Predict the structure of Dynein heavy chain linker domain-containing protein.
Amino acid sequence: MSYPELDWRASFQQDFKARKSLFEASLLSRKSIRLSISPTIFSDVSRSNKFQFISRLIPNLSEVAQLEAILWRNGINKDQLTQLDPLPQLISTESFLPIEWFDDYDYDPMSVERWLSIEGLEGFALVQDSESREWTWTPVSVVDYDADKLRWIVKDDEQVWEIPRIRLYLLYEDPGQYSKRILFAVEQRNYAENYLRYSYLSRLVDVGEYFEMIESTRDRLIERSSPDVFEAFNAVYRRFHIGLSMNVCLEQNEWLNIQPVHMVCYKSQPFCVDELRTLYSFRERFALIKRIVLLSHPAVYKALRLVHYECDVVREMSLFVTEFPEPQTLPAFKEANEEQLGKVMQYLQNAWIERTTMQVHKSLLNVGRGWFNISITSWTIYQFMKLYRLVEQIKHRMQAALRDLVLTSTEVFCHRLCDPCALTLPIDENYSWEGSLIESPFESGKTPVFYLLLHMGEQAPYYSTDPDEFLPCLETLFVEFVEQTHDVHLIDPSLFGSLIFAPNLFLSSMGLRDPTIRERRDHLRLSYRQCVIPLKAYAARYAEFKTLFFTNITEYVEEVKNSKTSLQVKEEISLQIRMRESLERTLPLSIVIGSFWIDVLPLRTALIQKRADLTAALLKMLTERLRDKTSDIVVDYNEIIERMCEKPASIEHIYEIREFMDTIPELLQQLEERMKTVVFEYEILDHFRYALPDVDFYQKWTALGMPKTILNQIESVHEFHEGEVDKFRKQQVSDEAGFASRVEDINVHISKFTTVYDVGKVTEVSIEVKKLWKTINELFQYGETLNKRQELFEMPAIDLSSLVELKESFVGYKNMWIFAAEYSNVEESWRKNPISSVETEVVARTLSHYKSSFGDLLDPFEDQPQIQNVIRTFLARVEQFEPHIAIIELLQHPLLEPIHWNQLAKAAGIKVKLSVAANFELFLENHIEQHSELLRDIITKAEEQKEELERIKAAEEEERRKVEEFNRNRELRRLKRTEI
C-alpha cells in the first residue's frame, strides 16, 4: 500500500499559486461597475476639508486616528491586513494568504486612470516603519500605479512604497465602503485558508479498505461497465465517504482548528449535519476514523511538524559554493566546494539523522502503548502499526527534502556556472579572436566565477590553469556531489533500538540518470566545452607578442648599435615609444570571457615594460655611443695639449713640438667638424627629453670649450720654449767637450786591446770585442746627434774623421775574434752531439764559410804576424775537420745494425758500446779514421746481405704466387666437373 509523499510547504505553495492565477485572471477580465464620480467634484476642495466627512463622524481626532477609529468600529484591525505566517500550521489561527489576493475592485468608486487623473491625490497607507518595524497608517501622496505588479506607488517626505490597493485609503473614498471592502476580503481569505487546510488534511487520510464497496456491488458494476469506468466510480465513491467522515470528525475534535467543508455528492445540494446524523452513528463513525487516520494523536502532528522543520533546514542548505567575493582559481574553487560538501554531508549523515530521530523520539516518548509505541520489539506487529506508516511518511519527507536539496543545489550550481557562458554557445570550434583585445563579445554582465592569469610561454601563451581542466573538474564535482547524497541513512535503526535493521538502508536521492540531472549535466558539459574555445582563441592572439616578450635587450641593442646610424636609432626609439603607447591602448588590465576573469595585467605590464626597457636601452646605447665619440674627441684634444705642453728633452724635441704646433689650427678645425656631428646626435637625446648623466653633460661642454682653451695655451708654450732653447745651448757645449774626451778614452783602450794574441781565450776576447764595437757605434751615433744639434743651434759641426778611422781599423780585428769564437762553438757542437743529429751538408757549408772568412783576414794583417798566426791556427782547425765529413757519412749509413757496430768495435779495439746515438768525439778518441776501410767493408757486406734477403724474399713470393694460382685453377676445374 502506498502513502502520499506530500510536503506542507510545497502543497500550500501550489494552492497559493493556483489561487493567485485565478484571482489575477478574474481581476483582468472583470467588468466592475464603477460609481460615476467626476474628479472635478473635489477639485476646489482644500486638503483641510477633504477629510471633513470623517471629521463629522468622529470629531476631535487626527486624520489617522479617525481612520483607525472607523475601521475599528467596523471590526477591522491592522493585524488582519498585515498578518502572514510563512509556514502555515493546521492548528494555527495565523493567516498565511496575502489579503490583497481577495480584494474586490467592485468596491472602488473609480477606475485607476480616473484616480491618477486627480492632481495631488493623497491618502493613508498602511506601511511598516523601517526602525520600529511596526505597521502604521501614514499620510502619503500617490505617485503612480504599476499595472504589472498591481501595486500603487506612494511616498511621504522620506520614503517611497509599493503597496496593494486594499492597504491604501484615498481621501475621496467613503470610509464605510472602504471598511466593507476590507471585511469582504478578510472573510474570503478565511474561507480559502480553511478550505486549503481541509483539503490538505483530507489528502493525508489513509483509510485502507474501510470505504471499499461490498463485493456484490463491485461485481455488479464491473459486469455492467468496463474496468476503467469502475475505477473512476470507485475513486469518486471513496472520496465522498472520506469527506463525509471528515466532516463528522472535524466537528467533534476541538484541537483541530478547521471547519468542515460540505461535500458535494450526486445531488446538487450538500448534505447537512442533521441529515447525516439520521444516516450514520457519529460515535461509531468517529471511532472508526480515529483508528484509520494517521493524525489521530497530537504527538504525531507535533512529530511531523518538527520533522518538517528539520527538512526545511536541509532544503535551505546547498551542496555547492558558487558565490565568492572575487573570482577563484580552479583549485581554490574545488577546495571550497569539497569543504562545503564535507560540511553538508557531515550534517546530513549525523546531525540531521540525530536531530530528526531525537525530535520524533521526544514527541512519541510519552504516547505509551498502542499505535505509536516506539518501544515495539516485534517486527511483525510493527509493520501493522500506524507507527510504521508514520516512519514511512517521515522517510518520504526526508527523501523529498534530500531531493529538493539536490535539485536546488544543482540548479544554482548550473545557473551560476553556465549562465555567464551563454554567449559562447553559438560559436564553432574554428573560432578565432578577430576583434579588439580589450572588448569581450562574451561578457554576459554576470559576475565571473573563475580566475585565470595569462602567461607568455616559449612555445605559445598559456593560462595559469589549463582551460581543458575545468570541464573534467566541474563534471567530477557535479557527479560526486550528487552521488554522495545517496549515503544518508534512514532514521529507523536509530529510532528503534529493539528492532534489527539491515546496515545498508539509505534515503533515496536524485540519480545521475534522472532527466533533470542529466539535462543539467549535459548543459554544464556543453557550456564549458564551448567557453574554452574563445578562451584559447584569446590566448592565441598574444602569440604576436612572443618575440617582444623574449627579446634579449643586450643582443637587440648590440645589433642596433652595429647596424644602424644615429638617425636610424632615433627612428627605432620613436618606434618603440609608439609601440609602447599602442600596447597601453590595446591591451586590457583584465577581460571577462564567459565565466572566466582573465588577469592580463602582469603580461601587459611586462610587455609595456619591455618596450620601455628597449627604449631606455637604446637611449643608453646612444648615450654611450656619444660618450665614446665625445671621449675620443676629448682624448684627441688632450693629446694635442699633452704633446704641445710636453717638457722638451732636447733642442730636437722643441723643434718637433713647434712643427706640431703649426698643424694645431688644422687639427682643431677637423675636431670641431667631428664635434658638430656629435652635437647633432645629442639633439636626438634632447628630442626625447633624455636627461644626460652629469659626467656626459660635463664631457660634452668640455669638448665644446677645448678649442678655445688650446688656442690660449699656444702662447704660453711659445714663451716656455724660448727659455728652454737657451738652456739646451749651454748643455750642447758641455756635451761636445764630453764627446771628445770619450773618443780619446776609447782610442787608448783599443790600442791596449790589440796586443792580445792568446788563442785559448777566444771566448773572453770575443765578448770584449763585441762590447768595444758597440761602444764605438754608440759614440758614432752620438757624434751624429751632436752635429744635428749644432745645425739647430747654428754652430760649426764636430769633426768625426778620427772616430771613423778608428772604427775602420777595428773591423778586421773584431771579425777575426768573432769568427774564431763562433767556429769554436760550432765545432764543439759537432763533436758533442750524437752522430744521428749531425747534418753533413750543413757541416760542409759551414766549414767552407769559415775557411773563406779566415782566408780573407790574412791580407789585412800582413804587417802583424802575431794576428796572422791566430788566423792560421783557426784556419788549420777548419782544414783538419774537413776529412771527418766522409767518416760521419759512413757512420750514418742506414744499413748499420747492432751486429755491425759490434764488428766495428771488435775490429777497432773499442771497448765502448757503439751506436748511431754515440757522439763523434767518442769515435775521434778511438781513431776511427784508421778503420775507415773496415767500415766500408762492413757496409758493403751489409748491402750484399740486404740484396740476398730481397732475392730470397722475391723467390718465396713467386713460389707462393704459383701455389695460389695452382690451387685456384684446381678449384675452378672441380667446379666445372660434370656429375655422373
User: Anything to note?
Assistant: Residues 183 and 607 are 75 Å apart (CA to CA). The radius of gyration is 65 Å. Confidence is low (pLDDT under 50) at residues 1-61, 263-273, 275-280. The longest helix spans residues 694-753.
